[in-house]
């Protein structure tokens, strides 16, 4: 994938132009033995997923670039500012307001 992208870039590159770094999202990849199903799914992992993971590992170990799952995030150095985070009343028991009669 990276090799094809680099060849394509060589063909379209124009001098004296400003370019921005961008990413590509490849959807429906899952690690071997892991499958995120919804309530009604009874689907097994996709055919050839082990071979696909081998290709992804090869890209990552080649030194030419890295491919990762979107769920892993893009950068572990960047963190959301949480100082002004609103309470999670619907997802955390500790944040549910309590009313008391005195």
Molecular shape: flat
How are helices and strands ordered from N to C? HH
First-last Cα distance: 67 Å
Mean pLDDT, nearest integer? 76
List keywords for this structure.
102 residues, mainly alpha
Structure commentary:
This protein has a domain at 1-32 and 45-68. The relative contact order is 0.11. The chain has helices spanning 2-12, 49-62. The protein contains two helices and no strands.
Task: Produce a short descriptive summary.
The protein has 102 residues and is mainly alpha-helical. It contains two helices and no strands.
Secondary structure topology:
Layout: H1 2-12, H2 49-62
């Amino acid at each position: 994938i990276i090799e094809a992208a680099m060849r394509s870039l060589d063909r379209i590159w124009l001098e004296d132009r400003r370019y921005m770094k961008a990413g590509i999202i490849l959807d429906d990849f899952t690690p071997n033995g892991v499958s995120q199903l919804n309530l009604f799914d009874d689907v097994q992992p996709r055919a050839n997923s082990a071979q696909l993971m081998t290709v992804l590992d090869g890209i990552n170990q080649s030194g030419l670039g890295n491919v990762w799952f979107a769920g892993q995030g893009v950068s572990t150095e960047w963190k959301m500012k949480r100082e002004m985070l609103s309470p999670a009343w619907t997802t955390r028991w500790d944040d549910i307001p309590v009313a008391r009669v005195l």
